[in-house]
């Protein structure tokens, strides 16, 4: 869910206070913000910048470099499919197409009921068990027809 | 730097300052360079250019483009030459079979995602990518891109999601992502050179793009200050001047000096025919070192603005419309009137105002006009209203009326004190150099009622901000001296050696008095005592301490006292006479230093010699063949007072708009209206011209030869790049006027005027156009003892002998807040506008600042029912005006702030006629005011606007 600007400011102050004096604080702060809000609200960036005496551009540059920092709230579940070479060679493309079709969404999108967000990921280090997926932080290997159905049931709940 | 048309060699990486020399061998040639130099630069020193795209010698090496690879014997692989430092005995090969192949491969990849529309590209002929493709011998691109960044649609007509449209929100340059090779030069220039950090690379890999500000920003809405450093750094057409897109590439360049602020940046005026294509900061300019700001770099369009008047005009009375006439007629009319006035009202009834925007030579002629032709000393200049206290204060304490350092000195400073100045807006190029030093670790103390950008902005933060109440400078400076003296932080050996010891003891006794303790002055100044003590200790013991100050120091009833106080601080701490220290006034206008040097003041002949000084007068009397008046003439305020009284009737005012820039506008208007002959010599029908009888069209800095002297006493050449649109350089016009009055002057080139200055003025004795041609510039004093000029003053001893400590008693200004006027107004400038705005208002700079606004603290606004952007009435004892409010906590409660760039606001209707006790410099920085909600412009503004419209009517020329 999106958070109102006023609340962003209030909760952000606590996060910033908790990170005061830390060396190299920007990434830990962005992580904490994502943890707290579920995404990194754009409203938060100028406040983080002012707090760290950085420019808006610099904070935007760092945040946009890391794909895992989201600008939008995500679904209740996040399904990530590996798009790297080993998984592609083991039918990853077809799997991805099937998942997109079944969920009715494309990469980086969330189903209209807010249940699931679909993200590509590049290598989960699970090449021996390709094709691989990541469901809410849990790795799943050898995603075949049966496992896919189970996964879809789980994330659509 | 994109400078291939008019080469100005780029060595790839910055110069190393090391004293240790290293010898290496590049392609068989031995070359010796300072330790820490890159292999790329060493090769360049040997005359060998290694191909490169991401390197430029005004920023640190980055090593991203992989084009500058070299082979080094005994080392593995092919390191990037820009990031590899030299080592003794190193053997470098810059061109081998392997390197050639690698470079072609890299180039092929670049070109696979770059459009091949070179012929119609705005950077055609001025593109480093094009040049590098040629240099590496790229003949074929084997890759066909599946996706690219540069085609808006694919062959099937579907939109390309990778393509982004041009951002042309900035009025002066465009950002075209399709041409970008993501070399990061723009981002690094913004960070390292300008220090604004407005740009970044967003995303990563194939998605990497240059982004101004955050995701939703354009160049205009981002933090970008439009300094042009990124445009200059861009190797392709990605960031490109709109003027180049419109006109094409320039064909020649002329080195000249910017005519805006007192930094005096050197520029290359790049021309095609007689059309100015662009102004590019000149790398070898010693004031700016290749950097620029939005004004000098882009805001030159006023010179060809339609408002510019190109024909002389006269009128019988100021209520008549203007009539265009020939030069003979206008000059004859002016000369006749001035002569009649002098015949009727006496020799002292006319005078001149010299310009701080014109050249030294022109200023010299104008003061010569009054001294040798009008036969009086009624000459003054706008320095009266800005830095006259600097002249007085530094003259008394050190013996010269100028800053002690060059701008390079800031690179060696450890503690910087900025008092009453806002360099990021007023002197942006100096501010960038200062910020660079601050990022390296120097400490900053800001003494200013407002939280200026230097107090806190990305990557810099002042150690102490002493937010004093306007008008209490002397109390703060004296308290700092109190801490230094009473805590034993003074540099006694320096004082004993260099200053008058008795005077020091007298001063020490004075400041040690407990009434000067920060705890005692806190109530008065609003500066917490602990903060002030900490700042004083830092300045005294933090290493090289340098003081930079501006009009926030001088434009007070105690301006001269504060300047003296600042000089005392520098002497107390021994911060004089070496690099990294000193007392440095940041002068407002391009040639305000020069106009003071050239004898613009009524009591001083050129070179600051008093008119009562017989030997000085004799020099000029001999040369000019006249007898000079030995009594000082009238200052500007005296001229106006005398005009109102009816004893001063004629004025020749060159390149200055006293009606808008001088305090108490109504009084100025009354004075001008009472005169019989006001001659305005300017580019535009300025506000003063509304009260003029003769208008002589002026020439811009692009249209004449001459010299400007900047804040560091540097005499820089101004070169004519095009013929004057009005027909004559300003020096020629002054000469014609003098000759119309029978002077018989015969100068045919400004160099002859400089020769006369050198022959008569000791501190300029060694200056000639020849020397300026070979040296680029010199800093006065330039004479037999210092043939190449003097970058640092007072190195072995003060100019006056022993440094003089003078007591600085705080006397509160008569301008006090009370129940009717409870707020204090202080005034200043902003980055995109300059002075009265006559130039910058006639450029696209108005997108950043279209009107003057009143900064007010939210608390003060709330109790008055004022909201952001509301019209408010701003009233003082002198008058009132209306403008829009801007709520901000940059100003403290009780203080309001505005700029004076727009004549429709006329902030100087508000300011009072209080002035500095020593020099009459007006007290612009403190006015007691009240702010109240309003519906729109005041009666005065409306009357003024209708008077101005009436006064600006021009009749068509008679056939």
Automatic annotation (TrEMBL), chain A:
Taxonomic superkingdom: Bacteria
Cofactor: record remark: Binds 1 [2Fe-2S] cluster.
UniProt keywords, alphabetically: 2Fe-2S, Iron, Iron-sulfur, Metal-binding
Coiled coil: none
Entry GO MF terms: 2 iron, 2 sulfur cluster binding; metal ion binding; oxidoreductase activity
Pfam entry (one): 2Fe-2S_thioredx
NCBIfam families hit by this protein: PRK05988.1
Protein name in UniProt: Formate dehydrogenase subunit gamma
Annotated source species: Cereibacter changlensis JA139
TrEMBL record, chain B:
Source organism phylogeny: Bacteria, Pseudomonadati, Pseudomonadota, Alphaproteobacteria, Rhodobacterales
Similarity annotation: Belongs to the complex I 75 kDa subunit family. In the C-terminal section; belongs to the prokaryotic molybdopterin-containing oxidoreductase family.
BP GO annotations: formate metabolic process; respiratory electron transport chain
Domain 4Fe-4S His(Cys)3-ligated-type: residue ranges: 98-137
Cited SMART domains: Molybdop_Fe4S4 (SM00926), NADH-G_4Fe-4S_3 (SM00929)
Entries under Gene3D superfamilies matching the protein: 2.40.40.20, 3.10.20.740, 3.30.70.20, 3.40.50.740, ADC-like domains, Dimethylsulfoxide Reductase, domain 2
GO MF terms held by the record: 2 iron, 2 sulfur cluster binding; 4 iron, 4 sulfur cluster binding; formate dehydrogenase (NAD+) activity; metal ion binding; molybdopterin cofactor binding; NADH dehydrogenase activity
Cellular component terms per the entry's GO annotation: membrane; oxidoreductase complex
Name assigned to this protein: Formate dehydrogenase subunit alpha
Matches recorded under Pfam families: Fer2_4, Fer4_7, Molybdop_Fe4S4, Molybdopterin, Molydop_binding, NADH-G_4Fe-4S_3
Keywords (A to Z) from UniProt: 2Fe-2S, 4Fe-4S, Iron, Iron-sulfur, Metal-binding, Oxidoreductase, Repeat
Domain 2Fe-2S ferredoxin-type: 18-98
Family matches, as CDD domains: fer2, MopB_CT_Fdh-Nap-like, MopB_Formate-Dh-H
Annotated ranges, domain 4Fe-4S ferredoxin-type: 171-202, 215-244
Domain of life from the UniProt record: Bacteria
InterPro entries the UniProt entry points to: 2Fe-2S_ferredoxin-like_sf, 2Fe-2S_ferredoxin-type, 4Fe4S_Fe-S-bd, 4Fe4S_Fe_S_CS, Asp_de-COase-like_dom_sf, Formate_Dh-H_N, Formate_DH_asu, MoPterin_dinucl-bd_dom
PROSITE patterns, sorted: 2FE2S_FER_2, 4FE4S_FER_1, 4FE4S_FER_2, 4FE4S_HC3, 4FE4S_MOW_BIS_MGD
UniProt domain 4Fe-4S Mo/W bis-MGD-type: residue ranges: 251-307
């Amino acid at each position: 869910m999106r958070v109102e600007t006023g609340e962003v400011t209030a909760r952000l102050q606590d996060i910033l206070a908790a990170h005061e004096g830390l060396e190299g604080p920007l990434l830990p702060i962005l992580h904490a913000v994502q943890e707290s809000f579920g995404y990194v609200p754009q409203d938060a960036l100028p406040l983080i910048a002012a707090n760290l005496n950085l420019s808006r551009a610099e904070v935007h540059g760092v945040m946009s470099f890391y794909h895992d920092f989201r600008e939008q709230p995500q679904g209740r579940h996040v399904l990530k499919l590996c798009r790297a070479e080993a998984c592609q060679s083991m039918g990853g493309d077809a799997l991805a197409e099937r998942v997109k079709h079944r969920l009715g969404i494309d990469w980086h999108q969330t189903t209209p009921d807010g249940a699931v967000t679909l993200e590509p990921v590049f290598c989960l280090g699970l090449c021996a068990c390709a094709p691989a997926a990541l469901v809410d932080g849990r790795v799943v290997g050898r995603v075949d027809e049966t496992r896919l159905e189970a996964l879809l049931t789980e994330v659509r709940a | 730097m994109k400078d291939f048309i008019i080469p100005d060699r780029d060595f790839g990486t910055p110069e190393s300052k090391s004293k240790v020399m290293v010898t290496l061998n590049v392609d068989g040639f031995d070359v010796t360079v300072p330790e820490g130099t890159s292999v790329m630069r060493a090769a360049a020193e040997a005359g060998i250019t290694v191909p490169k795209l991401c390197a430029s010698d005004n920023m640190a090496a980055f090593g991203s483009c992989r084009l500058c690879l070299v082979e080094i014997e005994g080392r593995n692989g092919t390191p990037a030459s820009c990031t590899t430092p030299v080592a003794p005995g190193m053997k470098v090969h810059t061109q081998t079979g392997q390197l050639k192949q690698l470079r072609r491969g890299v180039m092929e990849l670049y070109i696979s995602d770059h459009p091949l529309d070179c012929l119609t590209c705005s950077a055609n002929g001025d593109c480093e990518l094009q040049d590098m493709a040629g240099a590496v011998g790229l003949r074929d691109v084997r890759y066909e891109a599946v996706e690219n960044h540069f085609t808006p649609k694919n062959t099937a007509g579907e939109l390309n999601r990778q393509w982004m449209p041009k951002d042309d929100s900035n009025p002066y340059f465009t950002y075209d992502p399709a041409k970008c090779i993501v070399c990061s030069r723009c981002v690094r220039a913004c960070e390292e050179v300008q220090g604004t950090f407005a740009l970044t690379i967003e995303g990563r890999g194939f998605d990497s793009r240059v982004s101004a500000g955050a995701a939703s920003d354009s160049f205009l809405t981002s933090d970008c200050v439009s300094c042009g450093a990124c445009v200059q750094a861009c190797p392709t057409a990605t960031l490109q001047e709109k003027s180049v897109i419109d006109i094409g590439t320039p064909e020649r360049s002329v080195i000249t000096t910017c005519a805006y602020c007192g930094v005096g940046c050197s520029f290359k005026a790049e021309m095609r025919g007689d059309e100015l294509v662009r102004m590019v900061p000149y790398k070898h300019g010693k004031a700016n070192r290749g950097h620029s700001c939005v004004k000098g770099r882009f805001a030159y369009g006023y010179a060809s603005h339609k408002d510019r008047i190109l024909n002389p005009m006269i009128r019988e009375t100021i209520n008549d419309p203007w009539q265009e006439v020939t030069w003979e007629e206008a000059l004859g009319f002016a000369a006749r009137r001035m002569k009649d006035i002098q015949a009727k009202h006496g020799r002292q009834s006319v005078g001149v105002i010299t310009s701080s925007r014109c050249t030294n030579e022109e200023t010299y002629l104008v003061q010569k006009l009054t001294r040798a032709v009008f036969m009086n000393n009624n000459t003054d200049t706008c320095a009266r209203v800005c830095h006259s206290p600097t002249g007085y204060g530094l003259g008394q304490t050190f013996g010269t009326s100028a800053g002690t350092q060059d701008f390079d000195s800031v690179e060696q400073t450890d503690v910087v004190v900025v008092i009453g100045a806002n360099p990021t807006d007023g002197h942006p190029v100096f501010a960038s150099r200062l910020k660079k030093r601050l990022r390296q670790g120097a400490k900053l103390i800001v003494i200013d009622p407002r939280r200026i950008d230097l107090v806190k902005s990305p990557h810099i933060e002042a150690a102490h901000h002493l937010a004093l109440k306007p008008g209490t400078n002397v109390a703060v400076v004296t308290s700092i001296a109190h801490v230094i003296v009473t805590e034993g932080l003074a540099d006694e050996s320096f004082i004993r050696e260099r200053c008058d010891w008795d005077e020091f003891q007298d001063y020490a006794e004075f400041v040690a008095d407990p009434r000067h303790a920060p705890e005692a002055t806190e109530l008065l100044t609003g500066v917490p005592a602990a903060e002030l003590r900490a700042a004083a200790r830092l300045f005294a013991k933090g290493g090289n301490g340098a003081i930079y100050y501006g009009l926030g120091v001088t434009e007070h009833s105690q301006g001269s006292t504060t300047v003296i106080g600042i000089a005392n601080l520098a002497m107390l701490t021994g911060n004089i006479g070496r690099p990294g220290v000193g007392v440095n006034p940041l002068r407002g206008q391009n040639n305000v230093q020069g106009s003071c040097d050239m004898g613009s003041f009524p009591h001083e002949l050129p070179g600051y010699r008093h008119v009562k000084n017989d030997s000085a007068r004799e020099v000029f009397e001999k040369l000019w063949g006249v007898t000079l008046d030995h009594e000082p003439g009238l200052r500007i305020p005296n001229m106006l007072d005398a005009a109102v009284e009816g004893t001063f009737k004629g004025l020749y005012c060159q390149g200055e708009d006293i009606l808008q820039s001088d305090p108490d506008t109504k009084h100025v208007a009354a004075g001008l209206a009472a005169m019989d002959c006001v001659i305005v010599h300017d580019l535009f029908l300025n506000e003063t011209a509304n009260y003029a009888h003769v208008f002589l069209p002026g020439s811009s800095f692009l249209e004449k030869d001459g010299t400007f002297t900047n804040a560091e006493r540097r005499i820089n050449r101004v070169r004519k790049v095009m013929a004057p649109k009005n027909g004559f350089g300003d020096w020629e016009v002054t000469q014609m006027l003098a000759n119309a009055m029978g002077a018989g002057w015969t100068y045919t080139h400004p160099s002859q005027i400089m020769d006369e200055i050198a022959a008569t003025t000791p501190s300029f004795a060694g200056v000639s156009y020849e020397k300026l041609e070979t040296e680029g510039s010199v800093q006065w004093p330039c004479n037999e003892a210092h043939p190449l000029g003097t970058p640092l003053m007072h190195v072995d001893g003060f100019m006056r002998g022993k440094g003089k400590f003078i007591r600085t008693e705080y006397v509160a200004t008569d301008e006090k807040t009370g129940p009717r006027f409870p707020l204090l107004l202080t005034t200043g400038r902003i980055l995109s506008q300059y002075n009265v705005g006559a130039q910058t208002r006639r450029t696209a700079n108005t997108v950043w600042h279209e009107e003057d606004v009143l900064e007010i603290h939210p608390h003060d606004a709330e109790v008055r029912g004022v909201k952001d952007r509301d019209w408010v009435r701003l009233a003082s004892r002198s008058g009132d005006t209306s403008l829009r409010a801007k709520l901000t906590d940059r100003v403290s409660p009780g203080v309001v702030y505005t700029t004076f760039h727009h004549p429709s606001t006329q902030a100087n209707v508000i300011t009072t006629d209080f002035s500095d006790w020593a020099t009459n410099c007006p007290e612009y920085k403190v006015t007691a005011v009240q702010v109240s909600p309003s519906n729109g412009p005041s009666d005065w503004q409306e009357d003024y606007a209708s008077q101005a419209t009436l006064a600006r009517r021009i009749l068509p020329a008679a056939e």
